[in-house]
């Protein structure tokens, strides 16, 4: 089949890889004028690395392996500790933090050089029962058998399918950066999640001497942005226990970017006819569980498997959405409750099993469920 993919982020490239390998003709249309090099780093859990492995994508030599996630109080006391290496042993796939730039490089590695058509912003989608046509901001159009909207948070394809207003702001946003900050956690295999009255701070090693650092703060879209965000972070969080003050002292202003988070209720049916969605276009959620990109990779994996079954492609698209629904809707509901930022008292946190993330990952994942079956 000839398949049109809107968006060349994590989802668009993963979908293209899988469908090209299955012998389909694929064209990817990206609004941006070129390759995305920013966007800091993402945590790819065992479910995501398993999908990447199936797509022939290796993260060897990039990013940092994560073995533990420790949640701390702002005073430095341990709230909970999660043994992430246990999931790697159970499923055979590591958890890694990798910069978005490296992840996209690896996803694009080996794909045809002219696969992605940059500067092509999808503005409209029409279908007539046999073919589907995308129209672009430059007045051009492309026609194929199927269309996949992988155009992220502000998806034009989703707006066409669901109308405007289907996504709502969450209650908080993140100031984050990816910087060469030489503190112990940068050289470790541990992700620190620190929570206090003022908000939350996350620190994780991202390889190549880089630290992914972020601060979650309460937010509504009408909030004015601070004139000097780094000074604002230092004022709010600078009195927390080490290493927060050291990170704030070393953090370069230019690396700081803000993301206000959004959420939509995951639908049982995402698409219509010959059109479907993957990734944030279908299920935007706050990044508290670090599963957004992982769920996007899961979408690409299931979509590829469904289309490989042959038969009516429209029915295959709906089967893909049905297969993803129970897993991604669970992740989405949990991410909305924001458990990573809960201030669990250390006395209670000690009672939590260290390996609970392992079983939870299988519940989040079509890929790991298939592995276990
Ligand atoms: C602060 C923050 C931290 C995060 N941390 C993690 C994490 O640790 N782990 C994790 O798994 N996930 C994380 N996520 C979520 C993750 O980044 C997303 O879920 C993931 O990038 C979704 O991939 P996507 O391909 O759907 O969208 P994107 O990666 O956003 O790609 C969409 C692409 O479509 C293009 N596009 C947009 N509109 C159009 C159009 N009209 N026509 C053509 N192209 C278009 C865009 O330019 C972009 O290239 C985080 C998100 C944020 C904001």
Automatic annotation (TrEMBL):
Gene3D superfamilies given in the database record: FAD/NAD(P)-binding domain (3.50.50.60)
Keyword presence, Oxidoreductase: yes
Domain of life: Bacteria
Domain FAD-binding as annotated: residue spans: 2-331
Keywords, ordered alphabetically: Monooxygenase, Oxidoreductase
Pfam families in the record: FAD_binding_3 (PF01494)
Family matches, as InterPro entries: FAD-bd, FAD-dep_Monooxygenase_BioMet, FAD/NAD-bd_sf
Transmembrane segment boundaries: none
Protein's recorded name: FAD-dependent oxidoreductase
Species of the source: Actinomadura yumaensis
């Amino acid at each position: 089949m000839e398949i049109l993919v809107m968006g060349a982020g994590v989802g668009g490239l993963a979908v293209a890889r899988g469908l090209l390998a299955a012998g389909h003709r694929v064209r990817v249309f990206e609004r941006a004028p070129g390759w995305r090099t920013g966007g800091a780093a993402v945590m790819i859990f065992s479910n995501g690395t398993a999908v990447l492995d199936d797509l022939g994508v290796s993260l060897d030599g990039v990013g940092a392996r994560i073995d533990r996630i420790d949640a701390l109080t702002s005073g430095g006391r341990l709230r909970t500790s999660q043994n992430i290496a246990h999931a790697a042993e159970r499923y055979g796939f590591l958890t890694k933090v990798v910069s978005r730039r490296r992840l996209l490089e690896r996803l694009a590695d080996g794909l045809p050089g002219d696969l992605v058509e940059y500067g092509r912003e999808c503005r409209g989608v029409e279908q007539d029962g046999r073919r589907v046509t995308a129209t672009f901001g430059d007045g051009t159009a492309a026609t194929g058998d199927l269309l996949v909207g992988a155009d992220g948070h502000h998806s034009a394809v989703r707006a066409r399918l669901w109308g405007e207003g289907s996504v709502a702001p969450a209650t908080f946003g993140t100031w984050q950066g990816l910087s060469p900050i030489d503190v112990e956690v940068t050289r470790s295999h541990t992700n620190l999640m620190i929570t206090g009255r003022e908000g939350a701070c996350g620190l994780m090693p991202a390889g190549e001497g880089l630290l992914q650092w972020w601060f979650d703060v309460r937010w509504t879209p009408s909030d004015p942005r601070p004139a000097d965000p780094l000074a604002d972070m230092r004022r709010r969080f600078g009195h927390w226990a080490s290493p927060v003050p050291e990170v704030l002292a070393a953090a370069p202003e230019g690396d700081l970017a803000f993301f206000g988070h959004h959420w939509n209720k995951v639908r049982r049916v995402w698409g219509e006819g010959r059109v479907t969605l993957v990734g944030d276009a279908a299920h935007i959620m706050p990044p508290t569980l670090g599963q957004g990109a992982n769920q996007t990779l899961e979408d690409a994996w299931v979509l590829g498997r469904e289309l490989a079954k042959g038969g009516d492609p429209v029915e295959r698209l709906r089967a893909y959405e049905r297969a993803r629904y129970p897993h991604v809707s669970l992740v989405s509901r949990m991410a909305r409750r924001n458990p990573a930022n809960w201030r669990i008292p250390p006395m209670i946190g000690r009672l939590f099993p260290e390996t609970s993330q392992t079983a939870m990952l299988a519940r989040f994942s079509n890929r790991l469920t298939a592995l276990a079956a």
